[in-house]
Amino acid sequence: MRALKFYQTGSLDDLRIEEVTMPTPAAGEVLVEVKAAAINPSDIKNVQGKMHETTVPRIPGRDFAGRIVKGPDELLGRSVFGSGGNLGFGRDGSHAEYLAIPVTAVIPLPKNLSFAQAAGMGVAYITAWAAMVNAAQIVRYCILCGEIQERFGYWNNENFGVMPRTLLSQPFAPV
């Protein structure tokens, strides 16, 4: 199979498209025929040597979408997508025609998404989700501490839309 591969970190010029052995899925893994894969900033940093967990030689790539071609019978032929973990850093990633990955790391592809759309949402979705969770935790912390009530008074649906912008413009001092 064809794959993008690098043998040392430091420069994107070290990337090569070459023929490599098709991966064999271990117990608890599936083999995915990759139909689409995204390129993320972490993929670039990975090749440049800025990700400390990277080992070489390595096939980069974190986000993918494709079809399961080996694994449990009930999953064969299923369209899936996935992202993250040590994919592309400590184990070969998605910038290849096939990818062996734990069965727990694949998600069924929604019928309304193409392979390209699903492959493009992995790291971006996780980043957005983490930002929302972090923001929600900060707001929750402020509510629990009484910070919002002390600074802005009663928080209701009428001033909800204005409140976050106002909060961000204020210095944050936990009580």
Q: Profile the largest sheet.
A: 5 strands, antiparallel
Shape: globular
What is the number of independent domains? 2
Strand content: 15-25%
What would you call the structural class?
alpha+beta
Structure description:
With about 180 residues, the protein is an alpha+beta fold. The protein has 2 domains: about 1-120, Quinone Oxidoreductase, Chain A, domain 1; about 125-170, no CATH class. The protein is built from 5 helices and 7 strands. The protein has helices at about 40-50, 115-120, 120-145, 145-150, 165-170, and strands at about 1-5, 15-20, 30-35, 65-70, 80, 100, 105-110. A hairpin with an 8-residue loop joins strand 4 (about 65-70) and strand 5 (about 80). Residues about 155-175 have low confidence and may be disordered.
Summarize the structure.
The chain has helices spanning 41-48, 115-119, 122-145, 147-152, 163-169, and strands at 2-5, 16-19, 29-37, 64-70, 79-82, 98-102, 107-108.
Summarize the helices and strands and which ones pair or pack:
Elements: E1 2-5, E2 16-19, E3 29-37, H1 41-48, E4 64-70, E5 79-82, E6 98-102, E7 107-108, H2 115-119, H3 122-145, H4 147-152, H5 163-169
Antiparallel strand pairs: 1-2, 3-4, 3-6, 4-5, 5-7
